[in-house]
């Protein structure tokens, strides 16, 4: 795999049960951090990494995702007439003009592996990226996917983003065992979905960025439902290990698990504190809120 990735898959057909009742009508990927939905952060990261074809795997309830990336003629005209050019740029730039969006339907939520398989006809026979938008990764320098795309191009291996997690949390992640790391990369020797801490092969957890060889599709087609009755991407990757080098990649950046309540709150606070216009006000109101609640442990 020495080819640079051009295509990125966004599996957004999950049910988002952890954010009910909001996700009855608002897809989880459309929940905002400040003023951008989670999906936009992931799209920006993929475009920055060089992707020009974005494949959204959706379901019939997720019109909001397709609508968001569609052209909003009336809104654009109104903003233009009102001279609101800054906002007009924001609306126009959700997708740069050289990037195309393709929507594929996953008729039933049969698992992440199945969702990725739905993108097979569009990907064809080239390496591609998978981004899970609820893992939001913030970095001052190049984004996580861009770092991984460079590594994939240089090493020719598939790349899976990983981060160290406390051992008691292994049951919430795919966990990898690796050979010794060389810089940020280590060849994966085993991968297990959500192992209990006492049987986990390490505390290196998979987070939602992958660069995969197209061989994964044949393997996913042969994968039977695993944990939770779903076709797991982890099981497909476990089969890929036998044929192909797959590297764990320790990215530079901070990851927020926006698939959980506390992760979404943490991301909102961190982005607000880093925001050009909101930072001072956000700091002040956080201090006030803590004072009101009688929290006195702040230095
Ligand atoms: P999650 O495990 O976070 O599931 O899926 P979920 O349904 O989105 O959320 P909860 O757990 O019910 O709150 C991981 C990613 O895989 C996608 C999801 O959209 C999410 O981006 N996915 C999952 C699919 O696209 N299809 C599926 O069948 C399952």
From TrEMBL:
CDD domains: UGPase_prokaryotic. It is an enzyme of class 2 (transferase). It catalyses: alpha-D-glucose 1-phosphate + UTP + H(+) = UDP-alpha-D-glucose + diphosphate. Keywords: Nucleotidyltransferase, Transferase. One of its GO terms (molecular function) is UTP:glucose-1-phosphate uridylyltransferase activity. Residues 12-269 form the Nucleotidyl transferase domain. InterPro entries: GalU_uridylyltTrfase_bac/arc, NTP_transferase_dom, Nucleotide-diphossugar_trans. Its EC number is 2.7.7.9. May play a role in stationary phase survival. Belongs to the UDPGP type 2 family. This is UTP--glucose-1-phosphate uridylyltransferase. It comes from Pseudoxanthomonas gei.
